[in-house]
Each structure stands twice: as C-alpha cells, then as structure tokens.
Amino acid sequence: MAERKKYEVLGVSDFARRWGISLKEMPKGCVALIARGDFHYRRLDKNERDAAILKILKQFDTYDNVKKSIADGDGKKRWMREWKSVFEAFVAGGYDTERLVPPYFRPQIVRLDGDFAMPASPHFSIDAYTVLRRWIIETYFKKAHAIYEFGCGTGFNVAEIAKLCPGVEVHGLDWTPYSARIIQSFSPQFGNRAHGHVFNMLNTDPKFCLSSGAVVLTVGAMEQLNTRFEPFLLYLIRQKPALVVHIEPIVEIADTNTLFDFLAVSFGARRRYLTGFLPRLRALEKNGKIRIVKIQNTRIGSLYHDSYSLIAWKPL
User: Fold this and answer.
1) What's the distance, CA 99 to chain centroid?
2) What is the percent of the chain where pLDDT is above 90?
3) How confident is the model over 228-283, as pLDDT tens digits?
4) Which domains does the chain have, with CATH numbers?
5) Whole-number Å distance between alpha carbons of 306 and 248
6) 279 CB-near residues (< 8 Å, 6+ apart)
7) DSSP assignment string, the chain
8) What average pLDDT is seen over the chain?
9) Closest CA to 157 of 170, 146, 145, 144
10) Which end of the chain has fewer CB atoms < 10 Å from its terminal CB, N or C?
C-alpha cells in the first residue's frame, strides 16, 4: 500500500454532502459505520487514469452488439446461475447472512466526485454502500408498515432491513426462484418476518398486492430494464405505496459535457441499462400522478458508472 499521507479520506461530512443532508440529519448508525470502515482513497496518476479509461473503452467493443437488456436472454441465465450459486454457498455456510453480499462488490477503482479513485481498502465499495443503505433505512423505512424490495437478488438487503426494522414485515421479490428460497431460508432468524416471492418486473402480476402503508425499494434492479420500465411503474402507481425509493444509475443527471460522465452514459447505453425513467417520472409529476420527494446524485459508483443515484417518489 502506498504511504497513508498520499491518501484522502471520506468523513461524515462527505457522506452527508453526497446525500444532500446536514450533519445534524446524519443518523448515529451511519456515523458508527463510517467510523468503523476504511474510507481512505487516492486519486489516480495520469498513467493509471489513462489505463482506467482504456479499460472502459475496450468494454464498449464487448457490448456494442448487445441487442437486449440484461433482464432478457443470456442475462437471465447468468443471474439464475449466480443466485443458485449464492444459495448453495449460503446453505453450505450454515445460513450465515454475511455470505449474501453479491459478487459484484469487488475491489476495484471507483468513481468518486467526478473523477476516478483507488481505495485503500478492498472493502471500500461494500462499506460505502452499507452506509448509504443504513441512511435510507433510517430516513425512509422506520415508519413503514411493510417493506418490499423488487429485484432483491441475494436478499442481503432484505436481511439487513429485517434486522434494523424489528416488527416490520419485509418482502423480497425477484424473477429467479433462488432469491425467494434464500429469503425463506433465513427468515426464521428474523422471527419469520422475511418473505420471498417470485415476481417478474417486465410482466407484473396485478394479483400481487402491497400492504397498506408499504414502502418499496429497488437497488440496481430498474437498471436492467432499459426502456421497459413502464409496466412496473404503472403497477406501483396502481398499488399506491407510501413511498418508492430507487438506488439506480440515472443517466439523466449526468453531465455529458465532461469526458468522465460521457464515458459512464455511453457504457450504460451499450449495456442497455436504464434510460428514460427520470423524464417519465417528471412527466407523471407534471400531470399530478406522483410527487417526486428527492433526486440525488450521490457522486459515487463503480469504475463504469455512478451506480447509486437516489430517487424517491410517491403516488398521488
């Protein structure tokens, strides 16, 4: 590791700034997580930055011929394999929910405040996400009657929400049955308050009804729908949850006049990631169908794009 003096560090005020809140609004649980984590990082030198950009550009060639979103075709097969593997490891590991961290949280260069950065710790990405998730839970979920995560993957968010929101029913929904099996397997650890369901966001089931006063969460799930989010969006409007919170890459809040953001938006376009969602929400708000509560670019992400932009809205 390079000498620590070459590193900067994210503190409580840095996290508060990227969420658009004051220090007084920062939950104590988040402060504790920040204190425990290693959030040191350094900026890349010229050669490292050039290498990072070249790596992204080479990915363009890989995805230039992609015709379908990740939610279709080979992408569906991939996630079936991934979550089956996670389920088997979870069972073999004695149902330890710490084993549910998705494999895409890996040591890598990150996007941070408009430039690339090299974390000192291999756990930087998952630790930063954990702080963000804790803030969302403390800010938006504590008064919820029930919580539903659509596109829940391994169920690791469901387990954390069930732990931090005692007495609340927590539901995880995903199109692969392995996600539901994982959640049903760990549910006894949380008083059987965690429930797994099979649900296809591209072909919504109108018979699946949300509880009154429910809060909805998606994390990197809308991302995979590309432009095909309308059925799920209309489903949510009809169900009228108390609040919907998305943690997703939102290309419309990027500044494509900069090389840094242009690369991210171009990568997302080639991957057939989410696009058009924020303009659609704004149109619905203008027509009196919903109210947008918060839009926040958290200015943090993976090498390829800003993964954790925040949108919160509610049906009217």
Assistant:
1) 18
2) 84
3) 999 999 999 999 999 999 999 999 999 999 999 999 999 999 989 999 999 999 99
4) 52-106+143-315 (3.40.50.150)
5) 8
6) 252
7) ---GGG-EE--HHHHHHHHT--GGGS-HHHHHHHHHS--EEEE--HHHHHHHHHHHHHHHHHHTT--S-TTSHHHHHHHHHHHHHHHHHHHHTTS-GGGGS-TT--S--EEETTEEEEESSTTHHHHHHHHHHHHHIIIIITT-SEEEEES-TTSHHHHHHHHHSTT-EEEEEESSHHHHHHHHHHGGGGTT-EEEEE--TTS--TT--PPTTEEEEEESSGGGGTT--HHHHHHHHHH--SEEEEEE--GGGS-TTSHHHHHHHHHHHHTT---SHHHHHHHHHHTTSEEEEEEE---EE-SSS---EEEEEEE-
8) 93
9) 170
10) N
Q: What pLDDT, on a 0 to 100 scale, did the predictor assign at position 6?
A: 87
Q: State which amino acid sits at residue 117.
A: A
CA distance 92 to 80: 18
- CA atoms of 195 and 188, how far apart (whole Å): 10
Gap between the Cα atoms of 87 and 43, Å rounded = 37
In one-letter notation, the amino acid at residue 256 is T
